């Protein structure tokens, strides 16, 4: 009983730092569709370091400024190469739901994907226990991996 109680107490005292990134190739539109979900409080803390100011992602009147912070941050901390060629992320938008914030990006002119190289260090500059879960799909094949701080690179072959 005491061991079980201790285990749950340690889980409660030790926060979990997780980001989920999904990268999907849309063959019909020849695009990569990228979505990233981060715990809002963690994301705000890291963005505050970047902005040197208080950040509230729930504040509708600052949506445009917050979206700029989000876009700049993710574009700096998530880089992709398709078949060995670097690609640029284009910010589509963001939305907040309960305790998470989603950000959405797209890469145009991607007719096919044989290999996807990812450098993902989202929130590594804020938390050295960060775990980045990534899911990638192309040609009907879905692959996943987990990056534990400080590991930031992964490759997917389709």
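Sequence proposed for the structure above (158 residues):
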């Amino acid at each position: 009983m005491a061991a079980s109680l201790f285990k749950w107490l340690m889980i409660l005292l030790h926060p979990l730092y997780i980001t989920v990134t999904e990268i999907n190739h849309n063959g019909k539109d020849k695009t990569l569709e990228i979505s990233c979900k981060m715990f809002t409080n963690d994301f705000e803390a890291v963005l505050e370091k970047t902005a040197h100011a208080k950040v509230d992602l729930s504040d509708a009147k600052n949506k445009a400024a917050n979206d700029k912070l989000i876009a700049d941050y993710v574009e700096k901390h998530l880089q992709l190469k398709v078949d060995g060629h670097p690609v640029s992320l284009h910010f589509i938008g963001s939305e907040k739901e309960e305790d998470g914030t989603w950000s959405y990006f797209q890469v145009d002119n991607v007719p096919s994907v044989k290999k996807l190289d990812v450098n993902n260090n989202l929130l590594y500059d804020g938390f050295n226990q960060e775990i980045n879960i990534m899911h990638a799909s192309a040609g009907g094949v879905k692959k996943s991996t987990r990056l534990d701080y400080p590991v930031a690179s992964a490759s997917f072959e389709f």
